[in-house]
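To assess whether the prediction recovers the assembly geometry, we first specified each molecular entity separately, as shown.
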Amino acid sequence: MIIAARRLTKEFEIKANSAFGKPLRLRAVDSVDIQVGEGQIVGVVGESGSGKSTLGRTLLGLLSPSAGTVLFDIPDDVLREYDGFRRDGDAKGAASIEMEYSIFKKKGEKLKKIRSGMNMVFQDPYSSLDPRMNVMSIITEPLLAMNYMKPDKAVDRCMELLEEVGLPRDFAYRYPHELSGGQKQRVALARGMATLPKFLVLDEPTSALDVSVQAQILSLLRKIREKYHIGMVIITHNIAVISYMADQVNVMYAGKIVESGPKEDVILNPVHPYTIALISAVPGKMVKPNRIILKGDTPNLINPPQGCVFHPRCPMAFGICGWTADEIATDLKYLVNDKFAGSFNDKAVVSTGAGGSLVINNASAGDEGVLERIINEEKGNMKSLTAIEGLERHGTNIELKIKGYRVPKMYNHDGRKVSCLLYAGDDNKA
Amino acid sequence: MNEERAKRWDNTKLSIRVFLANRTALVGLIIVLIYVADALIMQFDPGLLGITQVNTLVPNFTNPVPLPPSWAHPFGTTFPGVDLYTSILKAIRIDLFYSILVVAVGAVAGAVIGVVSATVGGLLDETVMRITDIFFSIPYLILALAIGFILGRSLMYMSLALALVWWPLYARYTRSQTLSTKEFTYVEAAKASGVSRTRIMFRHILPNALPPVFIQISLDLGSIMVIFSTLAFIGFIANAKVPELGYLTSLGLNYVQTAPWAVIFPGVAITVFALAVNLLGDGLRDVIDPRRRS
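The predicted structure of the complete assembly is given in tokenized form:
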């Protein structure tokens, strides 16, 4: 594997609201496992804010992770050995392999050598090229910075690279503002592959470009992959780009990879509810009768939902996904005080207490029967109700018992890995 | 490499073309050049304009009351019988020299402090910024007067006082420029390409952050001259014979109703320079901005 990340986590510290408060921590990437083989293109899809760009930057060591590790150019059997050490809790064995392959354990010349083996192409070519440098200086910068070759040779290499990305040689003396968006992205690509890296991260390489230019850049990327066998991670929100380019697909949601597997499986036959909704949202020629429109917003990463992060928006959620008393109370309030207000005592109030208890106060006699019926009726629409285990009457109060929850792990299912409790039964080992 | 040299020459030509396209900037440049030429002539060969005593005003106590403009005195005279035309020519040299001194000292100190503050960050940054806050909280003219009062009444101390008042402005501006440039993707791209931190600083951040600071400095030359003459006008001047535009203006103040020219001509000399410098700065901004060149 060119790159293998294990349990990679990146947290950002956010300044607290008050000067004396504890700084808040935003977990942008949460225990991500990802690997890229030689010449393999791995796609990372997800909506904005899902942490995919942060993941890309951490894979390159541009950001240092809060936890986890990134191993560079590690033979497959060593990686298997490493995973074995991790599984068996052999910290010593794992550390010795990390010493050898982790990009965060390298310094000085060794780091420079690793650096020349990886690079990045950014989303916006308008800001990723220094406006005060000409194309020649931009492309030769990595060559000279990493002592990859002598300055006079770098000029020849620059001409070679320009040809490679389909630009005329005299562009070498132009400045970025004299180029179009597509031409700029070609220059950025030439810079990225200047040192013939083994690994390239492409962060939304086409989303700032016109559609016609997007296709050119993508086919150029494919050509380069075939010729130089560069392993790539393509970060994008565009499913079409992924399905054209990638071999493997990782779907990210709220900093976690929720589904990961071969492109054909994940795109054509998604199994995670989020992936299903994501793929169904792709615009096409035909109106899709079964398009799933998610309700609500992406979760707050400072205080993510408990259990499965996707459960508040999930159309297939069920009892043990991680519902909290507050989440259930929001739905119950609507039922008790609004939709079925006539069936209950006028003074009935849904309240949550400390320790996650959920109580309906001021209920009249017989209300629990009505409530039970309503809960069973509405379960299909309001997934939070599936977490109610039972009712118990104490005087005028009805106490609702909430089921325990589980945090989904990566389960093997149908040729891919998926992080959803629906598939927990298939595989409890992974 | 011939190709590169040709390209560079093309660039210079383009810069000149961009600047010339801005007519008002051209006017500004011409006026500034006239002021500079006058200062140089006064410095090296004042006889060229028939002036002998460059560093002092020549009073005429036999006829101290201001005379209107005439062939003998093109701009008239001011109290006490000082010829305004030659005095203004002399004064421009003094004002220009001390204005440049103030801007150079203040700007260089401020820019260095700003860059260091932005780069090091943390406690140092916080301390420096709070110090600049203190400077900003006091009206600059009063602060300059206070500092000048402590240092002593001479032109050199007066400009030092102004430089002390002015550096926080440049420190702040340079700091903010540096910080915002740091966030551009091309800095991250350079990091991804393995460029060292010092190299990123000198190759990417400073070349992009400093040009606007230089523009600001050139723009300030005009306002510094105004402030400098203001200080002289309110009496902050070493002796009664220094040819200085603000001081010249104050000489005619008592006669402003009967002899307005005694105030107008030195005043115009100050205003025109401040205006010209601003126009010039506008033109420079066009030249330096790569986006306006295409």
